[in-house]
Amino acid sequence: MKLTVTTHITVDGVVQGNGGRSENRSGGFERGGWARPYFHPESAEHINQIYASADTFLFGRRTYDLFAGYWGLQAPGSGPIADSLNTRPKYVVSNTLTDPGWAGTTVLSGGSDEVAAAVRELTAKPGGDLQVHGSGTLTRWLLENHLVDQLNLFVFPVILGQGRRLFAESGPDLALDLAESRAFPNGVMLQVYRSAGQPQYAD
User: Fold this and answer.
1) Residue 191: beta bridge partners?
2) Per-residue DSSP letters for the chain?
3) Cα(131)–Cα(148) distance, integer angstroms
4) What pLDDT, in 10s, does the model give residues 143-158?
5) Residue 74 CA from chain centroid, whole number
6) For position 28, what pLDDT does the model report?
7) What is the mean pLDDT of residues 24-31?
8) For residue 95, what are the CA distances in angstroms to 60, 98, 124?
9) Which pTM value belongs to this model?
10) Which of 29, 61, 141, 197 has the fewest CB atoms within 10 Å of its CB?
């Protein structure tokens, strides 16, 4: 399987609290809900298609709890996102979750090396996409461990000036190939990047 990360991100790299003002206020964050005003049927349909194409999902603990508390409660036939999430296998990286209530969930626990080995075992299986949605902390860790095959960045035309960013100030250097670029109404841009090894540096 191909490990694909899909995330909403601002121009200044913030990924925290895109869905609503109270979604994630950790660290004193007060500017949540920045993505919803820019949603358009065209971009929403594209996101639906991404979810529908998933074979398996991988989550960090915070995003897992958020999704389980909303999407996990939706009835069958509620839409492509709910139907995909509720019928396909789900994995969550956590050393504290012992009894997940969302059906079809497997917990990946242990140290960094153990979790990395478990993720590699998943991607070695035949199939389509192992999808990560949101899960900023997990995504940074996956990038640091060179486990991401593709990044789908929905870039929203807003600068927040605060909040947790996807890329740390100090981290691994990665080269990317731009596989697709698409503009949606309301100014949202989709940038699809595939891993391309190490960057080249000019003298």
Assistant:
1) 153, 181
2) -EEEEEEEEETT-B-TT-S-TTS--GGG------SGGG--HHHHHHHHHHHHTEEEEEEEHHHHHHHHHHGGGPPTTS-HHHHHHHHS-EEEE-SS--S--STTEEEE-S-HHHHHHHHHHHHTSSSSEEEEES-HHHHHHHHHTT--SEEEEEEES---SSS-BSS-SS-----EEEEEEEE-GGG-EEEEEEE-SSPP---
3) 10
4) 999 999 999 999 999 9
5) 20
6) 77
7) 78
8) 11, 8, 23
9) 0.91
10) 197
End-to-end alpha-carbon separation of the chain, Å? Answer: 38
Tokens of 138: 């997990």
Type of residue numbered 179: A
pLDDT at 20 over 80: no
Q: Which domains does the chain have, with CATH numbers?
A: 38-189 (3.40.430.10)
